[in-house]
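Fill-in record for Elp3/MiaA/NifB-like radical SAM core domain-containing protein.
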Amino acid sequence: MDLERYSKITNKNKREIVLLKGFPCKWGRCTFCDYIEDNDTHEEEMIKLNNEILKNVTGEFKQLEVINSGSCFELPEATLKEIKEVIQNKAIDTLYFESHWIYKNRLNEIRDFFSPTTVIFKTGIETFDDNFRNNILKKGIKLKTPYEAGDIFDSVCLMFGIEGQTKESIAYDIDCALKSFKRICINIYVENSTKFKRDEELIKWFKENYSYLEENPSVEILWNNTDFGVGGELNE
């Protein structure tokens, strides 16, 4: 698999970012996602690879984002300990992690483990359209209100540009996200090995009407899924 695993985000919210390997995604049913192919079950090999990636971290921005093809709870325990060592040695004060909604009641386990470092939790809601999120994308996230997730997570990931989405749903998603979350990451869909196709007209409309969001310090837009400098093609 030809994946970049370390990079620096220098345009907004400056931070280092690493793409680590974890155990299989516990949810693993999202129909648009093929990054779970990067998961593994060989713990010793994962730990060795993750340690090598973490050696790149310099701490120059005092912020580190750690992602894996699933949730941070699926990283090996030894890798979590290594991350803790790195942030202590490099005086990193802010740590970003991703987690699926199924772990919503366990976030404090990670916060406590890495205390006093501030932990920012991101979650992939993708859309606040319940039907599209659960029946089409199979995210398995049932919200009582569109704002419920913002009471639990600090940052939300949205995904736009998949065939079947509408202008109205995107406008609704942006409105909900801006009202609920301190940080927003908008991913423009890039076709992969799944069945889903890009809606080029919808993406064009979004760009014409919402590019101004790039001026918002709390909003990041990934026009390509490798814009953070990590990831890439999942080769056989």
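KEY FINDING: The helical segments are 43-54, 77-89, 107-114, 130-136, 167-180, 200-210.
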